[in-house]
Amino acid sequence: MNTISDLTLLGSGATANVYLYENDKILKLFNKEYAIESVEYESKIAQEISKSSIKAPKYYQIIQVNDQHGIIYEFVPGELLVSLLLRSSLSQGIVLIKELVKTQITINAITNNNISIQVDRLSYLINKVTKIDQYKKALIKGLRSIKQDHCICHGDLHAGNVIVNTSGFMTIDWMNCYSGNKEGDLLRSYLMLITPYIPFSLGLTKKLLLKVYKRILGHYYMKEYLRISGLKKRNLNKWYPIIAAARLADNVPNEERWLLNLIKKKIKYLTTAST
């Protein structure tokens, strides 16, 4: 590689651009202001995931391009699950969303003690949020009162982070991964399915239809995960305010009031959380 201009841009995000690199690899090149410590954090997670049986792009190495840092990953051809869902019928969408459940359950079935733990990760996110000061003490105390497991949790598993190809579902973007309780990972994915946020412009009727579609998919997602995993829905109540508070740290448009209402409604369940 001579310069970035020699590479094909595949996509852009808030913190990095993704380029095709040597035909069978991609370069995730972070913005200049992105801290090397954050790059190394993602690198460590990627190495752990690559050593597991999880279907995810293989990690290769960190490189530096001029004054920017990047990570080389395996290139995975295919289509994002979100694109498939947006053009699917309701019945097709339900089939796809049930496959996503199986993907998450497979991930959560693996344990790991070499990555950040859930308590630390979620506490960090909750402490970043400025509009929930009256709840922070109860949220952190409640989180720490829950007996911790060591399941691998993606931390941001949604239809935009899954590539679908002939080999099945391949999960990408592991920078939010942690080791902990699968209940938290399930709820994060569920809330991202039913979120009122829509990242593109639509007319009123189409927007309402999409929100209904998302709610139906969310219903089947939750139902299927509980059916396969054996988790009880009532045991998720104490996780709602924790995951909603952590999600607030992302500052997603149109979510703040919805998430704050969830916290207010469910915070009472943290007083009954026990080891």
Describe it for me?
The chain has 275 residues and is an alpha+beta fold. The chain folds into two domains: 4-74, Phosphorylase Kinase, domain 1; 79-272, Aminoglycoside 3'-phosphotransferase, Chain: A, domain 2, CATH 3.90.1200. The chain is 45% helix and 17% strand. The protein is built from nine helices and ten strands. The chain has helices at residues 36-51, 81-86, 90-108, 118-128, 133-145, 182-194, 204-229, 239-248, 256-266, and strands spanning 8-12, 16-21, 25-30, 59-65, 68-74, 79-80, 151-153, 162-165, 168-171, 178-180. The chain has a five-stranded antiparallel sheet with strand order 1-2-3-5-4, with helices on one face. A three-stranded antiparallel sheet has the order 6-8-9. The protein has a two-stranded antiparallel sheet with strand order 7-10. Strand 8 and strand 9 (168-171) form a beta hairpin.
Helix-strand blueprint:
Layout: E1 8-12, E2 16-21, E3 25-30, H1 36-51, E4 59-65, E5 68-74, E6 79-80, H2 81-86, H3 90-108, H4 118-128, H5 133-145, E7 151-153, E8 162-165, E9 168-171, E10 178-180, H6 182-194, H7 204-229, H8 239-248, H9 256-266
Antiparallel strand pairs: 1-2, 2-3, 3-5, 4-5, 6-8, 7-10, 8-9
Helix pairs in contact: 3-7, 4-5, 4-8, 5-8, 6-7, 6-8, 8-9
